[in-house]
């Protein structure tokens, strides 16, 4: 029997599902994991690592949560591997922050600002999925947060929004792994400078963290970008 729960989070509606009889505590654990990530990464949360970094002066250094450190290390790797196409500072100072092995985040200029909106949502979905999967002892389940989906052990239909006429259209079925879809265009909230034309970009990978980040890189390059092979990912572009 398919069990579902839905709740506002991450700026969208996050749906959890499982092909197993479970109690509310399993769903609560997944939503708690999302809340923990939001508290650590959101630029809007005054106590988050990222909000405090952005408000700090040059030369500041502070210890950050394990969640923030994990995301920032992946972001630094992607920035290097993509020759700067992936940039969590959005041009304010891609080389003006650093993180050391002990989990301390350093700010090297006053003007640099970090925004993890292009990668943090995928990470939150992964954390929720891991919490749900643990509670289910590996049973079939999924987490769906708008354009970010993580699945194990079952088939989940995927639809694409029609940004012009409204509504949705069927596209594919995800059976295992992660899929992220982002829309890049003049009317999108996630407007990306340099994107050639309005379109959806989807990337399938092992985790939503990687899928989410790679959509931004593919939007500035192509569906055969060498980074996809590096992460074992596949990309699509849709009108």
Could you describe the 3D structure shown?
The chain has 239 residues and is α+β, with helices and mostly antiparallel strands. It has one domain (1-239): Roll (T-fold). Helix content is 31%, strand content 29%. The chain is built from 6 helices and 12 strands. The strands form 3 sheets. The protein has a 7-stranded antiparallel sheet. A 3-stranded antiparallel sheet has the order 3-5-4, with helices on one face. A hairpin with a 2-residue loop joins strand 1 (2-9) and strand 2 (12-19). Helix 1 (24-41) packs antiparallel against helix 4 (120-135) and helix 4 packs antiparallel against helix 5 (208-219). The longest helix has 18 residues, at 24-41. Mean pLDDT is 91; it is low at 187-195.
What is the CATH level 1 assignment? Alpha Beta
- Average pLDDT, rounded to a whole number, is 91
**Strands side by side in the biggest sheet:** 1-2-6-7-10-11-12
Total DSSP helices: 6
Fraction of residues in β-strands: 25-35%
Distance between the termini: 36 Å
Biggest sheet record: 7 strands, antiparallel
**Helices and strands, in N-to-C order?**
EEHHEHEEHEEEEEEHHE
Unreliably modeled segments: 187-195
Helix vs. strand class: alpha+beta
Give the count of structural domains. Answer: 1
What's the helical proportion of residues? Answer: 25-40%
Strand element count: 12
Radius of gyration: 18 Å
Oligomeric state as shown: single chain
In the CATH hierarchy, the architecture is: Roll
CATH topology: T-fold
| Basic shape | globular
CATH superfamily: ApbE-like domains
């Amino acid at each position: 029997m398919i069990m579902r729960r839905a709740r506002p989070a991450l700026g969208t509606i996050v749906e959890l599902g499982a092909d197993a009889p479970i109690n509310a505590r399993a769903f609560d654990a997944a939503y708690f994991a999302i809340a923990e990530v939001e508290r650590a990464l959101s630029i809007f949360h005054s106590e988050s690592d990222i909000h405090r970094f952005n408000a700090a002066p040059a030369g500041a250094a502070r210890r950050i949560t394990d969640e923030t450190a994990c995301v920032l290390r992946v972001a630094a790797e992607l920035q290097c591997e993509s020759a700067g196409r992936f940039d969590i500072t959005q041009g304010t100072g891609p080389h003006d922050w650093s993180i050391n092995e002990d989990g301390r985040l350093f700010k090297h200029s006053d003007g640099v600002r970090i925004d993890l909106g292009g990668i943090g949502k995928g990470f939150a979905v992964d954390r929720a999925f891991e919490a749900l999967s643990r509670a289910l002892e590996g049973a079939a389940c999924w987490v769906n947060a708008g354009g970010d989906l993580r699945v194990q052990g079952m088939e989940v239909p995927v639809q694409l929004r029609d940004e012009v006429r409204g509504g949705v259209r069927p596209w594919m079925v995800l059976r295992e792994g992660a899929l992220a879809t982002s829309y890049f265009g003049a009317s999108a909230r996630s407007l990306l400078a340099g994107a050639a034309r309005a379109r959806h970009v989807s990337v399938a990978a092992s985790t939503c963290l990687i899928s989410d980040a790679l959509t931004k890189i593919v939007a500035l390059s192509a569906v055969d970008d060498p980074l996809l092979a590096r992460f074992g990912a596949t990309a699509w572009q849709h009108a």
